[in-house]
Amino acid sequence: MGPATRSRRHAVLIALALLLSALYFAVAAPYLSSRQEEMTLDGVAVLVTYSETASADDLMMPFYPEAAVEGSFAYSVNTKDGKPVSQYASAVLATPDSWQKVTEYYAAEMPGKPQPEAIEDNTGKRHVLAVAGKGETRMVTVRETATGSQIELLRATESAPPAKPLKPRRRESLI
């Protein structure tokens, strides 16, 4: 197995881990209204913005032409001074088109023109296109359905985590 294959498999594994977190948030999304909420992340105050819908801009990928949106959501985490910490967007679409046509479309639309990898496990067979790098992952998962294809779009970014505020040391601790 060459370095390119290992790197691609690594990207797919990362993308699958993100997919599992997407599934968690997809289940939770209907219970989250579009709102902002202050939280503390590693001792740093951050602002989390939830949205009940994700756009093609949030995903940095187009929605498949004439596909029906079955659900979507997005959230972003920024420090209080506006520096981005992470962003996450997900959408589920349905189309009568075949999985082959859908994967061809997204292979042409994604950076690096990734080729689909078939994955089969106890949840069934799906075709995954994934691109990861520079703190960002984009993934398209296509499942064949009785009426065409189900498309899951995902984009996740992670900037450097916010720095914890430093506590000044007392003078005697310097001796």
Overview of the structural elements:
The protein is α+β, with helices and mostly antiparallel strands and 175 residues long. It has one domain (3-160). 23% of the residues lie in helices and 43% in strands. A hairpin with a 4-residue loop joins strand 3 and strand 4. The longest helix is centred in the first third of the chain and has 26 residues, at 3-28. It is elongated, with a radius of gyration of 19 Å.
| Number of DSSP helical runs | 3
List the helices and strands in order.
HEEHEEHEEEE
Low-confidence stretches: none
Q: How many domains make up the 3D coordinates?
A: 1
- Assign an overall shape: elongated
Please state the average pLDDT score: 81
In oligomeric terms, what are we looking at? single chain
Determine the strand fraction and express it as a percent band: 35-45%
Indicate the percent of residues in helices. 10-25%
| Rg calc | 19 Å
- Strand segment count: 8
Largest sheet: 8 strands, antiparallel
Instruction: Tell me the span between the first and last alpha carbons.
Output: 55 Å
Strands ordered across the widest β-sheet:
1-2-3-4-8-7-6-5
Structural class: alpha+beta
